[in-house]
């Protein structure tokens, strides 16, 4: 029975971590005020490696809708500009001298739909990871020899209920974010 308790608590702990990761990903999708975190996923090829923008430049907030990016080396300005152009959904990059400005674009209906597609994609990956986690946990549950069939069945139902609760909570988070995006 101790193994069973450890297994269920481990499942709950992993789910909490996954929900936290989901919230962080969704938080990066900002609508109103620009934030440096929108650049966390943007990488560039530099010196044969993938490098985050914040590791080769200084990033500061100019105003509520503008970021200022100052590369530490002038030769990286064009590389940064091209990477930002390629990854821009919410912002438009501009070169001004030795710095880049990222101006957050006004959200159009098309942009809002793209953001909702992006959120749907993130949630689908999250659901896939939950199914893998459920499968892994049930496999571990089946390896516990001391459990009888009734107890095994009851615990499989409990695992499924934990997963279902997580999916319902995830839907609440999704609906909040969708409402935030669609609100003009």
Which features does this protein show?
single chain; about 180 residues; four-stranded antiparallel sheet; two-stranded antiparallel ribbon; elongated
Written overview of the protein:
The chain has 184 residues and is of the alpha+beta class. The chain has four helices and six strands, in the order αββββαββαα. Strands 3-4-6-5 form a four-stranded antiparallel β-sheet, with helices on one face. Helix 1 packs antiparallel against helix 3, helix 1 packs parallel to helix 4 and helix 3 packs antiparallel against helix 4. It is elongated.
Question: Shape from CA axes?
Answer: elongated
Helix residue percentage:
55-70%
Topology, number of strands: 6
Distance between the termini: 53 Å
Q: Low-confidence parts lasting 5 or more residues at pLDDT below 50?
A: none
User: Number of helical runs?
Assistant: 4
In order across it, which strands form the biggest sheet?
3-4-6-5
Tell me the major beta sheet.
Answer: 4 strands, antiparallel
Helical/strand content category: alpha+beta
User: What proportion strand?
Assistant: 15-25%
Mean pLDDT: 83
**N-to-C SSE string, H for helix and E for strand:** HEEEEHEEHH
Radius of gyration over C-alpha positions, nearest whole angstrom? 22 Å
